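Crash report, auto-generated. Payload:
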Amino acid sequence: MTDFIATLLNDPIVTTVLLAFVPLVFILVYALVVLYGEMKMAAHIQNRLAYMENGWHGTLQPFADMLKLLQKEDIIPAAADKFFFMLAPYLVFVGTYASFAVLPFSSGFIGSDIDLGLFYLVAASSLVVVGLLMSGWASNNKWSLFGALRSAAQIVSYEIPGVLAILGVVMVTGTLNMQTMTQMQDGGIQNWLILGGNFPLGQKLALIPVMVLLFVIYLLSSMAEVNRTPFDLPEAESELVQGYNTEYSGMKFAIFYLAEYANLFLVSAVVVVMFFGGWTSPFGSFMSGPVWSAFWFVAKGMFFVFFNVWLRWTLPRLRVDQLMYVSWKVLTPFAMAAIVAVGFIMVM
Amino acid sequence: MSEPTLETVTTSTGRRLRTEEMVVNMGPQHPSTHGVLRLEVVLDGEIVVDVIPHLGYLHRCFEKHCEHMTNYQQVVPYVDRMDYVAAMTNEHAYVVAAEKLLKIEVPERVHYIRIIMAELQRIASHLIAIGTFGIDMGAFTPFLYYFRDRERILDLFEMTCGARLLYNYMWIGGLSHDLPPQFTEKAKEFCTDFKRTMKEVNDLLNYNEIFIKRTANVGVLPKDLAVNYACSGPMLRGSGVDWDLRRDDPYTLYDRFEWNVITGNGEMGSVGDVWDRNMVRQREMAESVRIIEQALASLPEGDVQKAVPKRIRPVPGDAYGRVEGPRGELGFYIVAEDSVTPYRLKARAPAFVNLSVINEISKGAMLADLVAIVGSIDIVLGEVDR
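Recovered output after restart:
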């Protein structure tokens, strides 16, 4: 697709800019869908109907919400650190958006096909923590500061089991390139890494339990990284009002939200690439090709987004010390053990 | 307040920084203070060092107003507005006190209907208590499950007296309306359906692993402390004290029914923790359903306004009437002079008394636990501040 557009436009700069907009367009459309979807799912879990007024079953409501946020007054507290207060939401969004560059959306499209893909993704999404901490500090509000410190502690803690899980997968695939990683799993559901990947039978069977373990570890730590229930302590509204974004209104608040939803898809996409075959079709060559593969990628990603939403409206929230306990005393040791196991299996 | 621990930290650049405790205001505008309670919280990191509740944001001079009504009956709509999620109970307590003062014997049917209303109101109030407690813990869904059932109770009340929240239903010596014809059937239907919801919420919230982790061994209120602070209701029973006015001081006709007093037993942690208090409420609802079913089955006939006095002018004296409300012992002390209005009316608000223990049980807890503790006390600020 990159080559096609390049030949069509015959200008490398325009091509790059145009390609850079593809994930942005995706994020905006996806955010509207998820905004609507989450409200509807929450409502049906809770025996309600949610939006029913605007459009068929309230389908126009996300647009109305967006318009409302656009025209709201953008309040900056008098005692806030103005520069950092304004910078923070964009930093959070940039961290997430930058990570989209290495997501293989389809067999024909990946923003940047670099060999350090997963490494870059982990590094770029760490920028989010800086933004959150900045927003909490610059707001000059004690609750925001609490939320920011909690989120910094939480994200840093959960990055360790998360990255260890990624490491385990990388030891299996032997590459950090997300496109190559996906191509390795092509050929049907039996080649997905959660089912042992495309390896000889003995190795495959030995890999399955380890991959399931790595999957659970990564899923839990990714939920913590995107601040979703049961790990939504940084914005625990019953404790911290709204956490780091208490003082934000209007578009800045909207950008925080957009970043949160984008981040949700990002971690779901990483789960899909690492364990569920990325854009590959579960039926081998049936329903495959650049367009179908984009469909599979988004569909699989949306499934994990749905999973997160489902948990959010079901479970209560953990406490700070319990959160740390899960990360340091449960997930990290298991991730270490899984890495050792992967090492043995791969040498086998 | 305890002395702040002043520790000095030297940074890498040689600057000496002092660490100290942080004072935050939880409320009056805070999602989990259940109204306009303001807690001044001294925090050491996430650990609560001290809590000072500041009250009075909803003070409406209730007691003074009662002295300036045109008669005793006019106090009833006003007591509705004290504990606005359990208005029937407030009316019940007031009419019990007033009838004691006036020495009125009310017909049996009135007693039965009052019991049905009071128990329905207890369920409605506990539904809010448990639901909002779930929200405090981050679980939003059980709240709406319970609100769906609370709506049905409010529908029953609306059917009976036309109002959904503030009823003015119980009069001194009687009731404003008799039960409508379909009431018994609808109430029985509700009782049957409600048992199912209780099971649902038990599965979803009360026996949820995360919920238990969050609530067990948190905010433990020992037996003697609960008694010393004059706690009552689920607060007291959660700490294992077997005390319920419905059984131990049977006003109305509670001694005719079969039911159990629920006490906390430290099933998940220690006796008197937040989980116990919440569970006492949950189990009490099942007992209330039992009482309602029995009362509906044996409802006597009669005229509900037979004993209503035409003009109320008591002989000077005083009377204290109390009932077991959803939050605990709700009492009204009325001093009468030779007049049509009370000389003095004092309300013993259980939420106010229960709230006083918060400082004692939340020291050393974490900030998230403080939210759990406030939620488990189940305060209604309309009653605390009056």
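Post-recovery validation: The radius of gyration of chain A is 21 Å.
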